[in-house]
Structure to design on (122 residues):
C-alpha cells in the first residue's frame, strides 16, 4: 500500500504559477511510477502528466505540454507538478496517483491521493 497526500493548491490569477506536491508513505515510493490527473466539476478525471519510478521519462497531456513539469525526489518520497502560465481552464481538483506501471489512464493507477483544488481566475 502507498498513501498519497497532495498539497500546494490554491487560487491564482491567469498567467501565474503553482507547485503541487505529492507526499508518499508506506511502501517504497521509488518503486512506483507517479501520475497527476485533474477533474473539473461535471467532467471526467483526465490525465495531466506522468513520470517513471526513476524520473528518467515523463509524459504530458497536450493541453499542459510546455507549461507544466512533473518531477520527483525519491529521497523525499515526493512527486511534484510545477504549473506555469496557468489558464482558467486549468481550474480543477488535482490528484496524485501511483502504481508499479505507468500510463495515461485512470484505470492504470491503484493508489490515489485525496486531491487538492486549483482555481485560476481570469
Amino acid at each position: 500500500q502507498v498513501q498519497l497526500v497532495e498539497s500546494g493548491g490554491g487560487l491564482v490569477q491567469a498567467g501565474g504559477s503553482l507547485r503541487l506536491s505529492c507526499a508518499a508513505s508506506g511502501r517504497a515510493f521509488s518503486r512506483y511510477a507517479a501520475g497527476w490527473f485533474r477533474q473539473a466539476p461535471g467532467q471526467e478525471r483526465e490525465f495531466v502528466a506522468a513520470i517513471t519510478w526513476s524520473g528518467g521519462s515523463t509524459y504530458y497531456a497536450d493541453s499542459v505540454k510546455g507549461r507544466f513539469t512533473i518531477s520527483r525526489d525519491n529521497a523525499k518520497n515526493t512527486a511534484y507538478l510545477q504549473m506555469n502560465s496557468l489558464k482558467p481552464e486549468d481550474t480543477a481538483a488535482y490528484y496524485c496517483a501511483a502504481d508499479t506501471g505507468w500510463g495515461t489512464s485512470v484505470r492504470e493507477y491503484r493508489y490515489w491521493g485525496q486531491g487538492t483544488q486549483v482555481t485560476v481566475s481570469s
Notes: The first strand starts at residue 2 and ends at 7. Residues 72 and 79 are 4 Å apart (CA to CA). The chain is about 0% helix and 50% strand.
